[in-house]
Specification:
This protein is an alpha/beta fold. It has helices spanning 19-32, 51-58, 66-82, 94-101, 115-124, 146-156, 171-179, 194-199, 209-217, 222-260, and strands spanning 6-9, 16-17, 89-90, 106-114, 133-137, 164-168, 183-187, 204-206. It has three domains: 6-16 and 90-217, HAD superfamily/HAD-like (Rossmann fold, 3-Layer(aba) Sandwich); 19-86, Putative phosphatase, domain 2 (DNA polymerase, domain 1), CATH 1.10.150; 221-265. The strands form two sheets. Strands 5-4-1-6-7-8 form a six-stranded parallel beta sheet, sandwiched between helices. Helix 6 (146-156) packs across helix 7 (171-179).
Length: 265
Amino acid sequence: MARFAAVLFDLDGTLVDPGEGIAHTIQFVLDSLAFPYRFDGSVPWYVGPPLSEIFSTVLPPDSRNDELIEHAVSLYIERFATHGALESIVYPGISEIVATLSISTRLFLVTSKNTAVAEQMLNAHLLREHFEGVVGTERDSRFTNKADAVRFILTQANLNPETTAIVGDRLHDIIAGKDNQIFTVGVTYGYGTKRELTNAGADQTCDTPHELLGLLRKSGRPSLERSVRRLECHFKSRDAQIRLCAHNIMPLRQKSQMSITGSPP
Protein backbone atom coordinates (compact mmCIF):
# COMPACT_ATOMS: atom_id res chain seq x y z
CA MET A 1 0.00 0.00 0.00
CA ALA A 2 1.27 3.48 -0.87
CA ARG A 3 1.95 5.84 2.00
CA PHE A 4 -0.18 8.60 0.46
CA ALA A 5 -3.29 8.49 -1.68
CA ALA A 6 -2.15 11.58 -3.59
CA VAL A 7 1.14 13.42 -4.10
CA LEU A 8 1.57 16.94 -5.46
CA PHE A 9 4.92 17.52 -7.17
CA ASP A 10 6.69 20.78 -7.82
CA LEU A 11 8.34 20.95 -11.25
CA ASP A 12 11.55 23.02 -11.27
CA GLY A 13 14.22 21.60 -9.00
CA THR A 14 12.07 18.60 -8.11
CA LEU A 15 11.30 16.75 -11.35
CA VAL A 16 13.52 18.67 -13.76
CA ASP A 17 16.62 20.85 -13.65
CA PRO A 18 15.62 23.97 -15.61
CA GLY A 19 18.47 26.24 -14.51
CA GLU A 20 20.18 26.79 -17.84
CA GLY A 21 16.95 27.38 -19.73
CA ILE A 22 15.66 29.86 -17.14
CA ALA A 23 18.91 31.84 -17.05
CA HIS A 24 19.06 32.03 -20.85
CA THR A 25 15.43 33.18 -21.02
CA ILE A 26 15.91 35.88 -18.38
CA GLN A 27 18.85 37.19 -20.39
CA PHE A 28 16.70 37.18 -23.53
CA VAL A 29 14.09 39.30 -21.75
CA LEU A 30 16.70 41.79 -20.55
CA ASP A 31 18.10 42.06 -24.07
CA SER A 32 14.60 42.52 -25.52
CA LEU A 33 13.92 45.35 -23.08
CA ALA A 34 17.27 46.94 -23.98
CA PHE A 35 18.84 46.66 -20.54
CA PRO A 36 22.58 46.43 -21.34
CA TYR A 37 23.87 44.10 -18.67
CA ARG A 38 24.49 40.40 -18.26
CA PHE A 39 22.30 38.37 -15.93
CA ASP A 40 24.37 36.54 -13.31
CA GLY A 41 23.05 32.99 -13.17
CA SER A 42 25.89 31.61 -11.05
CA VAL A 43 23.70 31.59 -7.92
CA PRO A 44 20.42 29.90 -8.91
CA TRP A 45 18.07 31.82 -6.62
CA TYR A 46 15.79 32.35 -9.63
CA VAL A 47 14.65 28.71 -9.83
CA GLY A 48 11.36 28.28 -8.00
CA PRO A 49 9.94 31.74 -7.22
CA PRO A 50 7.07 33.20 -9.30
CA LEU A 51 8.15 35.10 -12.42
CA SER A 52 6.80 38.39 -11.08
CA GLU A 53 9.03 38.00 -8.04
CA ILE A 54 12.05 37.21 -10.23
CA PHE A 55 11.64 40.26 -12.44
CA SER A 56 10.91 42.47 -9.45
CA THR A 57 14.47 41.63 -8.44
CA VAL A 58 16.17 41.49 -11.83
CA LEU A 59 14.86 44.66 -13.46
CA PRO A 60 16.67 47.94 -12.66
CA PRO A 61 15.05 49.72 -9.68
CA ASP A 62 14.77 53.05 -11.51
CA SER A 63 12.82 51.42 -14.37
CA ARG A 64 10.83 48.88 -12.40
CA ASN A 65 7.02 49.15 -12.26
CA ASP A 66 4.05 46.80 -12.42
CA GLU A 67 3.48 47.34 -16.12
CA LEU A 68 7.11 46.61 -17.02
CA ILE A 69 7.18 43.53 -14.78
CA GLU A 70 4.03 42.22 -16.45
CA HIS A 71 5.56 42.82 -19.89
CA ALA A 72 8.77 41.05 -18.85
CA VAL A 73 6.78 38.06 -17.60
CA SER A 74 4.89 37.88 -20.90
CA LEU A 75 8.13 37.96 -22.92
CA TYR A 76 9.62 35.28 -20.69
CA ILE A 77 6.64 32.91 -21.07
CA GLU A 78 6.65 33.18 -24.85
CA ARG A 79 10.40 32.62 -25.15
CA PHE A 80 10.64 29.84 -22.58
CA ALA A 81 7.86 27.88 -24.28
CA THR A 82 9.84 27.69 -27.53
CA HIS A 83 13.42 27.56 -26.26
CA GLY A 84 14.01 27.43 -22.50
CA ALA A 85 11.72 24.46 -21.85
CA LEU A 86 13.76 22.32 -24.22
CA GLU A 87 16.91 23.02 -22.20
CA SER A 88 15.54 21.46 -19.01
CA ILE A 89 16.83 18.04 -17.91
CA VAL A 90 14.93 15.38 -15.93
CA TYR A 91 16.75 14.41 -12.76
CA PRO A 92 18.12 10.83 -12.87
CA GLY A 93 15.58 8.32 -11.59
CA ILE A 94 12.59 10.70 -11.64
CA SER A 95 10.95 9.13 -14.69
CA GLU A 96 10.98 5.73 -13.00
CA ILE A 97 9.72 7.19 -9.72
CA VAL A 98 6.63 8.89 -11.16
CA ALA A 99 5.86 5.85 -13.31
CA THR A 100 6.02 3.60 -10.26
CA LEU A 101 4.02 5.89 -7.97
CA SER A 102 1.30 6.57 -10.53
CA ILE A 103 0.27 2.90 -10.44
CA SER A 104 -1.24 3.27 -6.96
CA THR A 105 -1.10 7.01 -6.21
CA ARG A 106 -2.86 10.01 -7.73
CA LEU A 107 -0.19 12.44 -8.95
CA PHE A 108 -0.59 16.16 -9.60
CA LEU A 109 1.79 18.89 -10.68
CA VAL A 110 1.69 22.26 -8.90
CA THR A 111 4.15 24.84 -10.18
CA SER A 112 4.94 28.54 -10.32
CA LYS A 113 5.40 28.14 -14.07
CA ASN A 114 2.73 29.05 -16.56
CA THR A 115 0.40 26.06 -16.88
CA ALA A 116 0.80 25.71 -20.65
CA VAL A 117 4.60 25.79 -20.37
CA ALA A 118 4.53 23.20 -17.58
CA GLU A 119 2.33 20.95 -19.72
CA GLN A 120 4.78 21.34 -22.59
CA MET A 121 7.74 20.39 -20.41
CA LEU A 122 6.01 17.29 -19.05
CA ASN A 123 5.08 16.22 -22.57
CA ALA A 124 8.60 16.85 -23.87
CA HIS A 125 10.04 14.59 -21.16
CA LEU A 126 7.30 11.94 -21.53
CA LEU A 127 6.03 12.52 -17.99
CA ARG A 128 2.57 13.98 -18.64
CA GLU A 129 0.73 10.65 -18.78
CA HIS A 130 1.55 9.97 -15.12
CA PHE A 131 -0.14 13.13 -13.81
CA GLU A 132 -3.87 13.47 -13.28
CA GLY A 133 -3.73 17.25 -13.31
CA VAL A 134 -1.42 20.24 -13.78
CA VAL A 135 -1.92 23.62 -12.11
CA GLY A 136 0.43 26.52 -12.69
CA THR A 137 0.38 30.30 -12.68
CA GLU A 138 -2.14 31.69 -15.15
CA ARG A 139 -1.76 34.84 -17.23
CA ASP A 140 -4.42 36.53 -15.09
CA SER A 141 -2.14 35.97 -12.06
CA ARG A 142 -4.33 33.23 -10.60
CA PHE A 143 -2.31 30.87 -8.41
CA THR A 144 0.68 33.18 -8.14
CA ASN A 145 0.51 32.12 -4.51
CA LYS A 146 1.25 28.39 -4.58
CA ALA A 147 -0.89 27.79 -1.50
CA ASP A 148 -3.92 28.84 -3.58
CA ALA A 149 -2.95 26.36 -6.29
CA VAL A 150 -2.63 23.55 -3.75
CA ARG A 151 -6.00 24.45 -2.24
CA PHE A 152 -7.55 24.41 -5.71
CA ILE A 153 -6.24 20.90 -6.41
CA LEU A 154 -7.40 19.58 -3.05
CA THR A 155 -10.89 20.90 -3.69
CA GLN A 156 -11.26 20.07 -7.38
CA ALA A 157 -9.83 16.56 -7.06
CA ASN A 158 -11.63 15.91 -3.76
CA LEU A 159 -8.40 14.99 -1.98
CA ASN A 160 -8.15 14.27 1.73
CA PRO A 161 -5.39 16.44 3.27
CA GLU A 162 -4.66 13.64 5.74
CA THR A 163 -3.54 11.36 2.92
CA THR A 164 -1.95 13.94 0.62
CA ALA A 165 1.67 15.11 0.39
CA ILE A 166 3.53 17.83 -1.49
CA VAL A 167 7.12 17.43 -2.72
CA GLY A 168 9.30 20.41 -3.60
CA ASP A 169 12.78 21.88 -3.35
CA ARG A 170 12.05 25.43 -2.13
CA LEU A 171 10.43 27.05 0.88
CA HIS A 172 7.46 28.14 -1.29
CA ASP A 173 6.49 24.47 -1.67
CA ILE A 174 6.72 23.74 2.04
CA ILE A 175 4.78 26.86 3.01
CA ALA A 176 2.06 26.02 0.47
CA GLY A 177 1.73 22.56 1.96
CA LYS A 178 1.68 23.83 5.55
CA ASP A 179 -1.00 26.37 4.69
CA ASN A 180 -3.19 23.48 3.51
CA GLN A 181 -2.36 21.03 6.34
CA ILE A 182 -0.79 18.38 4.12
CA PHE A 183 2.44 16.42 4.63
CA THR A 184 5.48 18.28 3.27
CA VAL A 185 8.60 16.74 1.75
CA GLY A 186 11.62 18.84 0.84
CA VAL A 187 14.21 17.54 -1.64
CA THR A 188 17.78 18.78 -1.40
CA TYR A 189 18.98 17.57 -4.80
CA GLY A 190 17.28 20.61 -6.40
CA TYR A 191 17.94 24.28 -5.74
CA GLY A 192 16.92 24.67 -2.11
CA THR A 193 19.11 23.83 0.88
CA LYS A 194 18.24 21.56 3.78
CA ARG A 195 18.36 24.58 6.08
CA GLU A 196 15.87 26.47 3.91
CA LEU A 197 13.51 23.51 3.85
CA THR A 198 13.71 22.65 7.55
CA ASN A 199 13.35 26.30 8.54
CA ALA A 200 10.18 26.41 6.44
CA GLY A 201 8.89 23.45 8.47
CA ALA A 202 9.31 20.47 6.12
CA ASP A 203 8.01 17.27 7.72
CA GLN A 204 10.71 15.28 5.95
CA THR A 205 13.69 15.92 3.67
CA CYS A 206 15.22 13.62 1.07
CA ASP A 207 18.67 13.96 -0.46
CA THR A 208 18.14 11.77 -3.53
CA PRO A 209 15.27 10.69 -5.80
CA HIS A 210 15.82 7.11 -4.59
CA GLU A 211 15.32 8.20 -0.98
CA LEU A 212 12.20 10.08 -2.04
CA LEU A 213 10.69 6.97 -3.62
CA GLY A 214 11.37 4.99 -0.46
CA LEU A 215 9.64 7.61 1.65
CA LEU A 216 6.56 7.91 -0.56
CA ARG A 217 6.11 4.14 -0.91
CA LYS A 218 6.53 3.39 2.80
CA SER A 219 3.22 2.21 4.22
CA GLY A 220 1.43 4.42 6.72
CA ARG A 221 1.57 8.09 7.56
CA PRO A 222 3.79 9.20 10.47
CA SER A 223 0.82 9.96 12.71
CA LEU A 224 -0.59 6.50 12.06
CA GLU A 225 2.78 4.90 12.65
CA ARG A 226 3.11 6.65 16.00
CA SER A 227 -0.38 5.48 16.97
CA VAL A 228 0.50 1.91 16.03
CA ARG A 229 3.68 2.05 18.11
CA ARG A 230 1.72 3.39 21.09
CA LEU A 231 -0.78 0.55 20.76
CA GLU A 232 2.03 -2.00 20.55
CA CYS A 233 3.60 -0.59 23.70
CA HIS A 234 0.21 -0.63 25.41
CA PHE A 235 -0.44 -4.26 24.56
CA LYS A 236 3.10 -5.28 25.50
CA SER A 237 2.55 -3.62 28.85
CA ARG A 238 -0.79 -5.39 29.26
CA ASP A 239 0.83 -8.73 28.39
CA ALA A 240 3.52 -8.12 30.96
CA GLN A 241 0.92 -7.31 33.60
CA ILE A 242 -1.05 -10.46 32.76
CA ARG A 243 2.07 -12.61 33.02
CA LEU A 244 2.92 -11.02 36.36
CA CYS A 245 -0.57 -11.65 37.67
CA ALA A 246 -0.42 -15.26 36.49
CA HIS A 247 2.94 -15.67 38.20
CA ASN A 248 1.50 -14.40 41.48
CA ILE A 249 -1.74 -16.38 41.26
CA MET A 250 -0.14 -19.80 40.63
CA PRO A 251 1.31 -20.25 44.14
CA LEU A 252 -2.04 -19.27 45.66
CA ARG A 253 -3.85 -21.76 43.41
CA GLN A 254 -1.41 -24.53 44.41
CA LYS A 255 -1.91 -23.73 48.10
CA SER A 256 -5.66 -23.84 47.65
CA GLN A 257 -5.51 -27.24 45.93
CA MET A 258 -3.28 -28.64 48.66
CA SER A 259 -5.72 -27.44 51.34
CA ILE A 260 -8.70 -29.02 49.56
CA THR A 261 -7.00 -32.45 49.25
CA GLY A 262 -5.99 -32.40 52.92
CA SER A 263 -2.29 -32.30 52.20
CA PRO A 264 -0.15 -30.50 54.71
CA PRO A 265 0.37 -26.88 53.97
